[in-house]
Specification:
Layout (H helix, E strand, L loop, with lengths): L1 H32 L4 H32 L8 H35 L12 H34 L3
Helix pairs in contact: 1-2, 1-4, 2-3, 3-4
């Protein structure tokens, strides 16, 4: 049973953090490949970002479920398991914020710009706000990655023999 829970917990972190690390490369490649069609590239990347967020939320729920049982199964010391769980909750909160707050506002800006944000001048209010939100989205994803790496380190310290 310990091996199953440890595997599930590890897999949740591997999938979530792996996607967080891989996503910027996918986004950059998409924009580079579709260079003249930045609107199309943005739509693809936006769709992938929503998928990334849902993967993160599901992985967070799975990780929390495994962390609840970790001390009882002798997999982790209770305090460090709780610390790891707190980091996972923060990761999930940041992911949910990006999914349910930042992304919809960016979509509103895109619509306000006539559907394609790159077709309006850089000084257009919708584009200015979109660019600000885009930076906020990038920082949020970086924050999630940082928290995830911290959670993995705390979890490694939490393991019992």
């Amino acid at each position: 049973m310990r091996i199953l829970f440890r595997s599930v917990l590890s897999l949740a972190f591997i999938v979530w953090l792996g996607a967080e690390i891989f996503f910027p490369f996918v986004a950059a490649t998409t924009f580079r490949t579709l260079a003249p069609e930045t609107h199309t590239a943005g739509m693809i990347v936006g769709s992938l970002l929503r998928t990334l967020h849902w993967m993160g939320i599901v992985c967070g729920v799975v990780a929390l479920a495994a962390l609840i049982f970790a001390p009882a199964l002798g997999m982790a010391r209770p305090r460090l398991a709780i610390a790891t769980a707190c980091l996972v909750v923060l990761m999930m909160a940041a992911t949910a914020y990006s999914q349910f707050v930042i992304t919809p506002k960016m979509e509103q800006d895109r619509i306000a710009a006539g559907g394609a944000i790159d077709k309006v001048p850089v000084s257009h209010p919708a584009r200015v706000d979109f660019n600000k939100l885009h930076k906020q989205s990038e920082r949020t994803e970086q924050f999630v990655l940082f928290l995830g790496l911290a959670a993995v380190i705390v979890l490694a310290c939490a393991e019992t023999r």
